[in-house]
Specification:
Helix content is 12%, strand content 42%. By secondary structure, it is mainly beta. It folds into 2 domains: 141 residues, Sandwich (Immunoglobulin-like); 163 residues, Sandwich (Immunoglobulin-like), CATH 2.60.40.2090. The protein has a 6-stranded mixed beta sheet with strand order 16-17-12-20-21-22, with no helix packed on it. The chain has a 5-stranded antiparallel beta sheet with strand order 3-2-5-9-11, with no helix packed on it. A 5-stranded mixed beta sheet has the order 8-15-13-18-19. A hairpin with a 5-residue loop joins strand 20 and strand 21. The longest helix is centred in the N-terminal third of the chain and has 22 residues.
Length: 337
């Protein structure tokens, strides 16, 4: 009986070894690792990775924080259902940092070249590209959508089969649309105004926190003026509405940033500042309507578009009692101005 048990055990072990070769799709017992990206950290909560992310770059660091390798991909492959990125690493413990969407023709962000075995996590930064047209003022235009992730202490086992590394993304870049509208319906030429977002948010660390940086001035990449005809309910009266639109990008909005983001509009003809507001404070005014329990920073990270409408009087001054933010009409008190 004892001899039979030994033979049976040997046969069982042989069967396991054989099954490894048969069951693994590569035909051997090698472990394979693949990164699985998701982007659902927004206010719609569904995974929008395939629709929004155009390129991926996944940086691997060893347990001690030393750079090991970077794995990249881009293009149509990312939009395929079930997309994963092959990660060719030996078994071990790693930290992963993802900067995605940066390989764009706009080249609006820069990441330094890292040296394997020498560079560390702190060397991996992401910089918003800027120009110094007048030698002092740093300006930036349209930003490519940039996504970040940090996943630490990932154990890659040497067990045969395919192992997945989950990489959840956060979108850093924001789109801000500013609409100016005259109360009396008169035309609002967009070229009469200078639109600007000023914020020191152009240098991100490997953990997506903001590093000390100069103040960046984000300028519109698109402006337009237009007129729409509307009819009041129940009447045949037609009202003409004229507006000026400016569309701008900005980097990550961080609530506890020492230099808050300021949105300003200046009248080019008079030099008068039409409006100047703390962008994040105003963006958070509408959070309470439907996300009141969400932390402020989480809301700022999840919301990637801000549409603000300001009403002007006949002297092109902002009538500061009312503002529309993302379709919400907000009536401001004196304390909020």
């Amino acid at each position: 009986m004892k001899r039979f048990f030994i033979l049976h055990s040997s046969f069982f072990i042989s069967l396991l070894l054989a099954s490894c070769s048969i069951m693994d799709y590569e035909g051997d017992c090698t472990p394979y690792y693949r990164a699985r990206f998701t982007y659902d950290h927004h206010l719609h909560y569904s995974d929008a990775f395939a629709q929004q992310v155009q390129s991926v770059a996944l940086y691997a660091f060893d347990e001690g924080g030393r750079y090991v390798a970077c794995f990249r991909d881009r293009g149509e492959a990312l939009a395929r259902e079930g997309y994963t990125l092959p990660v060719d690493l030996p078994a071990g413990r790693y930290h992963f940092v993802a900067w995605c969407g940066l390989e764009d023709e706009r080249q609006s962000h820069a990441v330094p070249t890292l040296q394997p075995g020498t560079s560390t996590l702190s060397d991996l930064t992401c910089t918003v590209q800027r120009e110094h047209a007048d030698g002092t003022t740093a300006t930036a235009g349209e930003l490519a959508p940039a996504f970040h992730s940090l996943v630490t202490d990932v154990e890659l086992t040497d067990t045969y089969g395919t192992h997945y590394i989950d990489i959840p993304l956060v979108k850093d870049t924001k789109t801000v649309r500013v609409v100016l509208q005259h109360l009396d319906g008169s035309p609002v030429p967009a070229d009469r105004f200078t639109f600007n977002i000023a914020c020191a948010n152009g240098l991100m660390a490997h953990d997506n926190s903001l590093l000390p940086d100069e103040v960046l001035n984000y300028r519109p990449y698109y402006t337009a003026s237009g007129t729409a005809e509307t009819q009041a309910d129940g009447t045949r009266a037609t009202t003409s509405i004229s507006t000026a639109l400016a569309e701008m990008s900005t980097g990550r909005l961080v609530w506890d940033n020492g230099t808050p983001a300021t949105l300003s509009v200046t009248n080019n003809e008079t030099g008068q500042v039409v409006l100047s507001i703390p962008l994040m404070d105003y963006a958070l005014l509408v959070k309470g309507y439907y996300n009141r329990d969400m932390p402020d920073q989480e809301y700022l990270d999840r919301q990637d578009e801000y549409n603000l409408t300001f009403f002007l009087d006949e002297n092109n001054r902002w009538v500061s009692s009312t503002i529309i933010i993302n379709s919400w009409r907000v009536v401001l008190s004196e304390e909020e101005l």
